[in-house]
User: What shape does this take?
Amino acid sequence: NAGVTQTPKFQVLKTGQSMTLQCAQDMNHEYMSWYRQDPGMGLRLIHYSVGAGITDQGEVPNGYNVSRSTTEDFPLRLLSAAPSQTSVYFCASSYRTGGRGYTFGSGTRLTVV
Amino acid sequence: AQTVTQSQPEMSVQEAETVTLSCTYDTSESDYYLFWYKQPPSRQMILVIRQEAYKQQNATENRFSVNFQKAAKSFSLKISDSQLGDAAMYFCAYRTTPQGGSEKLVFGKGTKLTVNP
Assistant: This one.
């Protein structure tokens, strides 16, 4: 009963480097999303997907790419890391209907130096 | 666009006492869902309670209950018999409906709850 699995838990990048944050869920959820959490800002939506092959931008999409080739996986790519992308990143998933809450991964703390 | 406001950045409560965290939201939708999430120092986001807007009855989960005032767009969380393990950041969140395409959770900025022994 894994739920939502995020890797890695911690990462330090140099400015300009690229990397992929991994997210996988085993609950057959149609909806998956990425949020970033910054002090005093709550959580803000980066990108989301309502099913395999369908993605869309959230509130703060610049500098990030996503794809959804399978129902289970929703990786987040940082194209060229910047210090402004230092944050805690959460992946979350949910069924599309029924109004159930989202299930969150344990988060990735990313520092860009 | 929907917004969620938590007006209390920090709150404190004595162990075994009751505390209420405030949340207001702005929306033009008639059908939606509201949630309270708890984030302890471990960073994990834990769903505490949820409310469906079309239900007039306030949701309860053990020591946690909400006061949902739809007309006032208010959704407060009451924690009874507070325990040390309740100390955490609490986020109020609004879930938009799938209609219209842009489905998401909109979060408030959070309230940090301290429980004093």
Remarks:
- Chain B is about 0% helix and 50% strand.
- Chain B touches chain A at residues 4, 33, 35, 37, 43-45, 47, 50, 52, 91, 95, 98, 101-110 (CB under 8 Å).
